[in-house]
Amino acid sequence: MPTFDTIDDIPTDSRVLVRLDLNSPIEDGAPQDNRRFERHAETVRELADAGHRVVLMAHQGRPGRDDFTSLAGHAEILADHVGRDVAFVADTYGDEALDAIDALGAGEILLLENTRMCEDELPEESPEEKAETAFVETLAPHFDAYVNDAYSAAHRKHASLVGFPLVLPAYAGRVMETEYEANTAIATREFDGPVTMVVGGTKATDVIGVMDALDEKVDRFLLGGVAGELFLRAAGHPVGHDVGDMDLFDEQWEANRELIESVLDERGDAIRLATDLAYEGDDGERAEVAVDDIDEKETGYLDVGTATVDDYEPAIRESDAVFVKGALGVFEDERFADGTVGVLEAIAATDCFSVVGGGDTSRAIEMYGLSEEDFSHVSIAGGAYIRALTGEPLPAVEVLEAAAKRQ
Fold first, then answer.
1. Does residue 60 sit within a domain?
2. What is the predicted pLDDT for the residue at 358?
3. CA pair distance 162, 131, nearest whole angstrom
């Protein structure tokens, strides 16, 4: 269990600075409602209901990218989820922001402008350096406590994440608390039966690193997506390379070939590979081909096949714990959702500890009418989830733990 303090430990009637992760898809200039707003609303509501003065920080996009925008729209979406007004100020630590912060009454909520509009925020630097930025030194004196609820950004060393816990009493919000506990369970919990990991997605480098790091913790890996195809290539099948204008496989193969081959060599008995793959047929419908019948890759494979799903389901149903990192196919297209949804349905029907990680994969739960309640935890984190699985430190968690020792 973590050794940080939580919002239960904050003294009454505090002015609290809270870091959320409301980073969202932007369409036509407007943020889109998503699971992050709903999750963070719990922390915000609890703090406001307790009578604290609540000031929120969050980021959206990065400078130079299309999704780098103001948080004005985010305040409206968050207010709907919290059930209270969320005021917004188009400033982060200037006079306008400071006046709005000082004017807050008990139970009132204020969202500051996008933290990444501050030049002090983004460079990855040590917490000590971040604590000495004008951003932190100007804002901190106006607060009694700092709360980090942005677990999904906890792998970053940005000012709003690692600077404030050095100069203010610091606490974990509900999202930080629950995400940390669930995502580190694979390393910290003992399970009575088999532990299974479903590995997919397009970022093969991430998941191969996870497979290597969890060598002793996971009894079997069920593979799909880009990583699955690269492992099939390592096993001698003529797949796992780019065709046409595709740019997914060859570069990742070159970067990870030795690790893939060593993992396959050392843990081959624990690794289940797809026995068939799905692609778009000439008629535009889903078509499937057995891996052993592929002589040459001539098209992109977009999902694992029906036989693979049938093979993976029993392995899931006899597991005591199942962790998911990445989708097994392009589930956004209903024709190629069978692998991802089939595996999620099997997990939902199994009495096991289950964590579904990564924003993309968790979206399939909502898209295909599954219930989050059928899983132990559905993570909203991507990079931080990978780090937790591989046992790498999370800088924003480390500074919370250090703060708890000082308090």
1. yes
2. 66
3. 8
Do 164 and 266 share a structural domain? no
Please name which of 72, 67, 91, 75 lies closest in space to residue 37, comparing C-alpha atoms: 75
Indicate whether 147 and 252 sit together in one domain: no
Q: Give the DSSP letter of residue 63.
A: T
Chain mean pLDDT for the chain: 95
Cα 169 from chain centre: 26
Phi and psi torsions of 343, nearest 5°: -70, -45
Whether 321 shows a pLDDT value over 60: the answer reads yes
| pLDDT tens figures, 44-66 | 999 999 999 999 999 999 999 99
Range of the domain at 344: 185-390
Provide mean pLDDT across the span 90-102. 98
Residue 150 lies in a domain: yes
Residue 1 inside a domain? The answer is no
CA dihedral angle for residue 383, residue 389, residue 391, residue 394, rounded to 10 degrees: 30
Same-domain status, 92 and 162: yes
pLDDT in the model for residue 2: 58
Give, as one character, the DSSP assignment of residue 281: -
Report the alpha-carbon distance of residue 41 to residue 148 in Å, rounded: 13
Global pTM? 0.88
Q: Are residues 364 and 352 in the same domain?
A: yes
* Positions of E strands within 77-194: 87-88, 109-111, 145-148, 170-172
Phi, psi (degrees; rounded to nearest 5) at 56: -110, 140
* Distance from C-alpha of 135 to C-alpha of 69, rounded to nearest angstrom: 19
Tell me how far CA of residue 216 lies from CA of 1, 125, 193, 194, in angstroms. 20, 33, 14, 12
Cα dist from 296 to 13, 223, 268, 293, 314, whole Å: 68, 21, 24, 9, 30
Helix, coil or strand: residue 321: strand
The torsion angles phi and psi of 216, rounded to 5 degrees, stand at -90, -15
Shared domain check, 230 and 168: no
Which tens digits make up the pLDDT trace of 267-316? 999 999 999 999 999 999 999 999 999 999 999 999 999 999 999 999 99
The domain tally of the chain equals: 2
Q: Residue 298 sits in a domain of what CATH number?
A: 3.40.50.1260
- 340 and 399 co-located in one domain: no
Q: How far apart are CA 135 and CA 122, in angstroms?
A: 11
